[in-house]
UniProtKB/TrEMBL annotation:
TM spans (from-to): 12-33, 53-72, 84-105, 117-135, 155-172, 178-195
Subunit structure: Heterodimer of a catalytic subunit (MsrP) and a heme-binding subunit (MsrQ).
Ferric oxidoreductase domain location: 52-163
Cofactor note: Binds 1 FMN per subunit. Binds 1 heme b (iron(II)-protoporphyrin IX) group per subunit.
Name of the protein described by the UniProt record: Protein-methionine-sulfoxide reductase heme-binding subunit MsrQ
Pfam families per the UniProt record, alphabetical: Ferric_reduct (PF01794)
Keywords for the protein's UniProt record, in alphabetical order: Cell membrane, Electron transport, Flavoprotein, FMN, Heme, Iron, Membrane, Metal-binding, Transmembrane, Transmembrane helix, Transport
Cellular component GO terms held in the UniProt record: plasma membrane
Stated role: Part of the MsrPQ system that repairs oxidized periplasmic proteins containing methionine sulfoxide residues (Met-O), using respiratory chain electrons. Thus protects these proteins from oxidative-stress damage caused by reactive species of oxygen and chlorine generated by the host defense mechanisms. MsrPQ is essential for the maintenance of envelope integrity under bleach stress, rescuing a wide series of structurally unrelated periplasmic proteins from methionine oxidation.
Any GO molecular function: metal ion binding
Single GO BP term: protein repair
Family statement drawn from the similarity comment of this UniProt entry: Belongs to the MsrQ family.
Length: 207
């Protein structure tokens, strides 16, 4: 009988999952250190909000990269961390929105707050679409939704685009970084198009 490859052994996959969880916590650790050492600069509230938003956005992109990595490497370990990374992205997005309310615009008249500027509307749309994905990410919900799960979770592509629009719309100067993120998202979406056709990218459409 063939012995499983080292990378397929449960202990290796577990170690990989722990590493991924640790890496996903790094932005929070850095933020905690910066708060503890009071190194957040002249506007700590803004800095906290921005760093949490950036962590949510980066983790969203990393989550989107898991399927291509699995296809290229043939290793299922990438998919074993996908849901966890997506949930971390949601976790950071929740903290980002809470920080925004707490430190920037306050808790009164939420409708006026979220519709104040176009870039905030884009962020709010991205966040609202993330909620059903987080809620339906448990094993039980995957089972319950059956073949409707995948069409729903294709919302992730729209979420990434809305988050990117939110990101680039608020840029005051140097947009090089935003353009680079945009190109990565475009590349990841183009791969889905190549593999599954355009319907593979459309939320709620059955591929
Ligand atoms: C209700 C939802 C949201 C609100 C109200 C909101 C609000 C904000 C605000 C006020 C900023 C700082 C803008 C500035 O520098 O003046 C920001 C930055 C940012 N947000 Fe959001 N956001 C929301 C959702 C999201 C979501 C869902 C993501 C990603 C998944 C995201 C990613 C980002 C990124 C990447 C930045 C830029 C950080 C940087 O400059 O390094 N936001 N957001």
């Amino acid at each position: 009988m063939n012995r499983p490859r080292i990378v397929d052994r449960p202990a290796f996959v577990l170690a990989f999952r722990l590493l991924a969880a640790f890496l996903a916590c790094v932005p929070l650790l850095i933020l905690a250190i910066n708060i503890a050492t009071q190194s957040l600069g002249p506007d700590p509230g803004q800095e906290v909000t921005e760093s949490l938003g950036l962590a949510a956005f980066q983790l969203l992109i990393v989550t989107l990269a898991m399927t291509p990595l699995k296809r290229w490497s043939g290793w299922a370990g990438w998919i074993r961390v996908r849901r966890m990374l997506g949930l971390f992205a949601f976790f950071y997005a929740v903290l980002h929105v809470l920080a925004f309310l707490q430190f920037i615009l306050g808790w009164s008249d939420l409708w006026a707050t979220f519709t104040k500027r176009p870039y905030i509307v884009a962020g709010a749309l991205s966040f609202l679409m993330l909620v059903p994905l987080a809620v339906t990410s448990t094993r039980r919900m995957v089972k319950r939704l059956g073949k409707n799960w995948k069409p729903l979770h294709k919302l992730i592509y729209l979420i990434a685009i809305a988050a990117w629009v939110h990101f680039i719309w608020q840029a005051r100067s140097d947009i090089g970084e935003m353009v680079a993120y945009g190109l990565v998202i475009l590349g990841l979406l183009a791969l889905r198009w190549k593999w599954n056709g355009v319907r593979g990218l459309i939320p709620f459409a059955r591929a």
